[in-house]
Amino acid sequence: MACAAVGVPGLFRGSVGAICTQAALLRLTPSALRHLTLSSIMKSKRKTDHLERTADVVRREVVSAAKVCGTAYESPSVKRLRLLVADKDFSFKAGQWVDFFIPGVSVVGGFSICSSPRLLEQERMIDLAVKYTNHPPALWIHNQCTLDSEVAVRVGGEFFFDPQPADTSRNLVLIAGGVGINPLLSILRHSADLHRAQADKGSGYAMGTVKLFYSAKNTSELLFKKNILDLVNEFPEKIACSLHVTKQTTQISAELKPYITEGRITEKEIRDHISKETLFYICGPPPMTDFFSKQLENSHVPKEHICFEKWW
Predict the structure, then answer these.
(1) SS3 at position 98
(2) Coil, strand, or helix at residue 120?
(3) What is the rounded CA–CA span in Å between residue 278 and residue 291?
(4) Could you tell me the residue ranges of all domains in the chain?
(5) Domain 57-156 classified CATH 2.30.140.10?
(6) How many CB atoms lie within 10 A of CB 309?
(7) CATH class of residue range 171-310
(8) pLDDT for 37-84, tens place per residue?
(9) What pLDDT is attached to residue 270?
């Protein structure tokens, strides 16, 4: 699967109101969508291809046209896209990814959605953040994608947090490495939306606490720093974060310093959060994901309370 990330913080280019109106979206016809997806699937031959790797993973049938209505860099190597998906049949659960179909590009991308389901419900928008690699979909996003580019998307994935109002209240521990932050940011944002619904209406799912552990090489590669800290500040009793850097060479800013630990996320830090009410979500490089999922199992956390997604 693929992801995104690194960059110079900046606002999305283009006005959402002006550029991302549903009336302005040129919808791909069903036959064009069908040709795009079938030709992409038939041409996918590589063993490392997203469609092959996820062939057994549940995905929705609906393929929806989408239009790029904003771009920004989260770091020097990670580009964020905002897509308008006008199709009312398109929906997703926090943590899921999309098959990403590009006209003229035979290889299909696989990118986690980093926005919340609420943004889609309210504005028909989703956000992706894609790291620069030589993989054709990532190359297209970094080198050719522009405002108004048209693509198609289909939701898939079994890594998600989608509690129902009557479900038992749970705490979450989110463990992210590098661009593995993408699906976990969607879950974090969804958790914040659930907290807001409780505060505003006193109804809906009763969220417990959320603790994010997030590791990257240095602070410039800690994606979505401001978004994460804004949520921590908005819900100081409910949301907390521990940001780790493993190869920091420059001075850490005063704003970030209270949240930064130099060195990897440790087994003890995670173990301190184990409880019967806690669910663990892990996304990062395979060795990291394997390590923490195994350590949690060894600490007698039930397997059904450990969810993970590996990024290649």
Answers:
(1) strand
(2) helix
(3) 18
(4) 57-156, 171-310
(5) no
(6) 23
(7) alpha beta
(8) 554 544 444 446 899 999 999 999 999 999 999 999 999 999 999 999
(9) 98
